[in-house]
Amino acid sequence: MAPLVRFAPSPTGYLHIGNARPALLNALFARARGGRLLLRLDDTDRERSTAEFARAVEEDLAWLGIVPDLFARQSDRAAQHDAAAERLKGQGRLYPCYETPEELERRRRRQLGRGLPPIYDRAALSLTAEQRAAYEAEGRRPHWRFKLEARTVAWDDLVRGPAHVDCASLSDPVLIRADGTYLYTLPSVVDDIDLGITHVIRGEDHVTNTGVQVQIFEALEASVPVFGHHNLLTTADGEGLSKRLGHLSLRSLREAGYEPAAVRSLAVLTGSAEAVRPVASLDELASLVDLAQISRAPARFDPHELDGLNARLVHAMPYAEVAPRLAALGIPDLAGEAFWLAVRANLATVAEAALWWKVVAGPVAPVIADPAIAAAAAETLPEEPYGPETWKTWTGAVRERTGAKGKALFMPLRLALTGLDHGPDLAGLLPLIGRDRAARRLAGETA
Ligand code: GLU
């Protein structure tokens, strides 16, 4: 059966590179197997979820190259969540509790003081109907806990191999808050069941949830999906990624000019068995991902690695792919492929091509560092047409006339022709600058 996987972010902030990891691992898993991807917005936190963040999730995924096959929103599925909650209540697996946070905290401290694990003591299970009625009369509303079976839940994890959670050591989790809203735990299971999710691939911060959720799947008499828990991306100092690290949001990376392929490569290959390297195509990246080979250690990365990955992708980028983007940068198609081939090796981002177009087309304020060389260059400047060999012939003539060579020859020419002391190979730029502009710049004119 073709897999159906899901990426399930909460629309409470912008996706960052750490979220790109599960998004891509799911998308690539489906892609490699002819499966499908569901985008599920986990928007049960109504106060923090916004329509703007929801839109941004879809935009940012599209930028990464992920177009989900199916879409669901948890807030549209309240009736199904309620039905499942009623079913669990009917089975006695979901029970009402009336403790306030302060009471729970006091109990927790008492347990810790006695050297006991701070597990919820299930006091609410022994409340009589009168006691419950008395709480209700006081205006207390219950929160609802799922009664865990005290057993170990085991599964064969796609990433971690044989895995287990000892549910006897966990507190019964709260599934419904006192205000009637759901925590993510139950709706996630209900949606995974109803939508037919076959594989749940998510961060290892959800391993304990899996122990709980497997028990919920079973209580709802549904088949349990296959689980895989990948390591989380962390910065080099081991700091986890939170929405606070705004500069690593997919939007800011996009605005900074990073290629989606650079972000994809870093988000997926870090902490895998493959070397982190630029992989331009999604299909190739999909063929490289083997969940079973993902490391158990945190996937540490340095955001600066993006620079190197990006540059390498840009340097190898074919003109056909970049042409519309050059047009969007306001670079006319006059020089076409020749311009791109002349400058791409000097670019950290595609957007920087605009700077070099300005150097070609002008106006450039030349720097005449060595008037004698500028004069000799002007006198020996060849007639057009210019080709790839023109630069060599011309600088040979200037060398002969002035005796200057190496840097002493090339730097004054570069400064005069471009106004800058660095840049792409002039053999490629000169034909684009052309004779007229070159002559004027050598004469010290802004052109
Ligand atoms: N909304 C949850 C999260 O972002 C989804 C976890 C899951 O994939 O089940 O952590």
From TrEMBL:
| Swiss-Prot/TrEMBL catalytic activity | tRNA(Glu) + L-glutamate + ATP = L-glutamyl-tRNA(Glu) + AMP + diphosphate
Write down what this protein is called: Glutamate--tRNA ligase
Please list the GO terms describing molecular function.
Answer: ATP binding; glutamate-tRNA ligase activity; tRNA binding
* Described function: Catalyzes the attachment of glutamate to tRNA(Glu) in a two-step reaction: glutamate is first activated by ATP to form Glu-AMP and then transferred to the acceptor end of tRNA(Glu).
Q: Where is this motif: 'KMSKS' region?
A: 240-244
What PROSITE patterns does UniProt report for this protein, alphabetically?
AA_TRNA_LIGASE_I
How is the subunit organization of this protein annotated in UniProt?
A: Monomer.
List the EC numbers from the record.
Answer: 6.1.1.17
For this UniProt record, the keywords arranged alphabetically read as follows: Aminoacyl-tRNA synthetase, ATP-binding, Cytoplasm, Ligase, Nucleotide-binding, Protein biosynthesis
Q: What's a BP term from Gene Ontology annotated to this protein?
A: glutamyl-tRNA aminoacylation
Pfam family for this entry, one? Anticodon_2
Give the originating organism: Methylobacterium symbioticum
Name the NCBIfam families on file.
gltX_bact (TIGR00464)
* Residue ranges occupied by any Aminoacyl-tRNA synthetase class I anticodon-binding domain in the UniProt entry: 384-443
Q: Where is this motif: 'HIGH' region?
A: 9-19
Q: Which InterPro entries match?
A: aa-tRNA-synth_I_cd-bd (IPR045462), aa-tRNA-synth_I_codon-bd_sub2 (IPR020751), aa-tRNA-synth_I_CS (IPR001412), aa_tRNA-synth_I_cd-bd_sf (IPR008925), Glu-tRNA-ligase_bac/mito (IPR004527), Glu/Gln-tRNA-synth (IPR000924), Glu/Gln-tRNA-synth_Ib_cat-dom (IPR020058), GluQ/Sye (IPR049940)
Record GO cellular component, one term: cytoplasm
Query: Quick one: which residues bind ATP?
Result: 243
Family the UniProt entry places it in: Belongs to the class-I aminoacyl-tRNA synthetase family. Glutamate--tRNA ligase type 1 subfamily.
Q: Which domain of life is it from?
A: Bacteria
Residue ranges constituting the Glutamyl/glutaminyl-tRNA synthetase class Ib catalytic domain according to the UniProt record? 5-307
Q: Where in the cell is it found?
A: Cytoplasm
